[in-house]
Amino acid sequence: MPSTSQRDAILRMAVSDRIIARLFLTPSRVELVIVAVLVIVLIVLGGGLVFQTGGTKLPYLHTLYVPVFMAAFFFGPWGGALAGLAAGLAIGPFMPLDVAAHVPQENFGWGFRAGIFTLAGLVVGAVVAALRLSTSKVVLYGYIDDFTGLPNRQHLVGLLASRIQSGISQTVFAVNLRSIRPIALAFGVQTAEAVLKKAAERLSERLHAPDLLFRADSTLLAVLCTDQTNTAVMAEALSASLSKPVEVHGIPLMLDANVGVARTGVDDNPPDLVMRRAALATDEAQESGQSWSLYARESDEVLRQRLLLLGDVRMALDGKELTLAYQPKVRLSDGRMEGWKDGRLRGPGALEPSSARGGAARPLRAHRRILRADWPTHPVHLQGRCGASGRVGGAG
After folding, report:
1. Distances in Å between the alpha carbon of 349 and those of 148, 286, 313, 355, 363?
2. Does the residue 377 lie in any domain?
3. Which uninterrupted H or E stretch holds 183?
4. Side-chain half-sphere exposure of 214, counting CA atoms within 13 A
5. Which of 40, 143, 45 is nearest to 85 (CA)?
6. Range of 124's domain?
7. How far apart are CA 335 and CA 327, in angstroms?
8. Nearest CA to 261 among 244, 237, 241?
9. Cα–Cα distance between 80 and 279 in angstroms, integer?
10. CATH at residue 160
């Protein structure tokens, strides 16, 4: 569970109404001292009111419930019980039943009243504490990862939004743990979660205040740093901390991780866009074989074109529009290369790695099996010629 200060920070961010948020925040020492003095003053004033109105025979004594309930709200059940006992004694043995007639109270009467005050403070304090705890848990579960105890993506997005609005530049380091899913399939979800928790502990060791670590997704951790952070040094440090295997239940497991970096404050980017760019940078790092990568605007267009191309591939497969180009030809009239029906020639690099993860992978494999099945089993004699030509203009 988060610390008290972290819990209060989450509640301030989660509850837009400041008055309602104050009901769940832990009071500071100064606030507690002010409330304690106010409770004492109200008890004294309440006792004076009862005396000036003629004694405990009149209903003015019930005004003492106000400081009792106030103490119960701020100090909990034991604080409420103590205030109730003090209120009971304030209008207890020294307070006459009738001031004008000098009629004292019976011991049982003021003692019973003091017990009621004490019980009321105890019960109200316990109810308020229980409601505050349960409400805080409901709010916190929306902002804290239950297993690792780290703040989650919603917390990260909310914090990014508030800092962007304040004009504070931040750098997001997304750490994509690609081995978590295979580990979950091979050894179970609990083992995968344990691996992720150990990875989070390693990352935490590389952080310094005010850097914050989040669990942004099932396999994605995120580090939020100030814009003054040295990007290359931090990215290398995060990657190096995950370079060695972690041991869970006596099994050493490697962490296949890539780090992606994205910055805020340049175009007032929305938090979701900043997180998406950092996650996209982790894919760029994996494709380039690097441990980390800084987001580049070209990555968005490349990914968009690949996704659009996958749709074309599916329609081409269904319409049997794909042809196998053994020797691509260039039309001299317009210089276009023959291949696709629309005149575009696409090599494997245009589809990978998106086709491997997208819906076109299965149809492509199916067509490959068909080609293999249709390949003749008898010997085939092939003849070919090879020609070479030099580049014009001295280009190397």
Report:
1. 39, 15, 14, 10, 17
2. no
3. helix 180-187
4. 24
5. 40
6. 4-141
7. 15
8. 237
9. 51
10. 3.30.70.270
Q: What are the residue ranges in the chain where pLDDT is below 70?
A: 1-26, 138-140, 227-228, 265-269, 298-308, 310, 322-329, 337-396
Name the token pair of 294.
């800084």
State whether residue 375 is helix, strand or coil: coil
Asked, as a colleague might, if the bond just before 271 is cis with ω within 30 of 0, I would say no
Name the residue among 32, 28, 29, 11 with its Cα closest to residue 20.
Answer: 11
Please state the φ and ψ torsions of residue 99, each to the nearest 5 degrees.
Answer: -65, -45
Q: Classify residue 174 by burial, with Cβ atoms within 10 Å: 0-12, 13-18, 19+.
A: buried
* Residue 325 within a domain: yes
Q: Is the domain of 20 the same as that of 134?
A: yes
Rg (CA), the chain: 36
**pLDDT single digits (tens) 320-377:** 776 655 556 677 777 776 654 444 445 544 545 544 454 544 444 444 443 433 444 4
Instruction: State pLDDT tens for residues 269-297.
Output: 677 788 888 888 888 888 888 889 888 77
